[in-house]
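Notes to self, Cysteine--tRNA ligase:
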Amino acid sequence: MKTYYLCGPTVYDYSHIGNLRPILTFDIMIRAQKYLGEEIFFVHNITDIDDKIINKAITNNVSEESISTKFYLYYLEQLGNFNILKPDKMPKVTEELNQLFLYIQKLIDNKSAYKIGNNVYFDVKKYSLQYGIVSGQKLENLEFEDSKIIKKNKADFALWKDTKVGIKYDSPFGKGRPGWHTECAAFIDTYFKGKTIDIHGGGIDLIFPHHENENIQHYALYNQNIANKWIHFGTLNYKNQKMSKSIGNIIYPHDFLKQYYADTYRLTLLMTNYSKPINMTDELFEANNNLIEKYLITWNQFQLSTEFKTQKVNEELMKNILTLIGSLDFANANKEIFALSKDKNNLVTFFEVMKVLGFLFPLKFLSNEIKEIYKEWLIFRDKKEFQKADELRKILIKEKIL
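result:
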């Protein structure tokens, strides 16, 4: 069984389409691998307590839970809207506090962490030779801001902190809340039983310090890295600027879906190397939306053809393409997919590939009513009754058949 973990959102605001890039790319990869017979166990966390959540709760004079619940439910809704399979586990920090306590205590017990007041810190210098495995950073070259917080070393990071603002939770270490860097490490420890996982994913901005700090905690407990492979996703730029709430150039999924198909975004990601930035433009969205419409028209016309019930799937072609997708070789897979979409003798294979990859358009079937209108249109067209044919043609164009 393959074991995957993907860092999830901090649910303090509406997720934008950039936030969906990692989970949607994982979805494409996992769908392909499952088709090829792989068993996958996939965990994707939700950070539902954080400074940003606390600050928003204070600003809106509501509880942290009401903020996190609202935007968690929005995130779940978008997984459905974009046909993203729900991960096997989606642990929330506030629902897994006992597991976090156990994890932090293990680090204290083996002298990798220490307590000062109600704070618990990881002793980074104890593992200075291993620190930097993920990011390539060297501890001796790093500079840290001076802090009034008393700890052994400036590089030491909080596993549990005695916060002064917002909600506090009871713990064996005193009242406070978890440090961000220990959440994911604790979840991996809990759900994967302390074993090194196959793939760990997240945004490129998480490499340091988040993923570095996750890894060093795991190393401290098990003398091995937390993951065999890291997948770091490039930024999503809109009109040459990183899509960011602070800049204000974001596109929310619900706004995206007012103009484009969900498949349009899936296609955009499929056409890009996961580690590279994508410069989103209106022109790119329009071009990919038009391509999805062409695929939809081809699919609808195929349903009306005699080959719909007779053409057989080419299993070898499917396996070749999905093997490329499963190994994240999107560039070569796309060449094969595009060629397949033009091959009239293998259209059923093209549609099956797209269905496996999570596209929605091959799941749309024509109603009997539309099929009858199409038949009538053919009759009027062949009889050269063009006025009647044109009236039906307008309906068929609207239904993406012509």
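- The radius of gyration is 25 Å.
- DSSP finds 14 helices and eleven strands in the chain.
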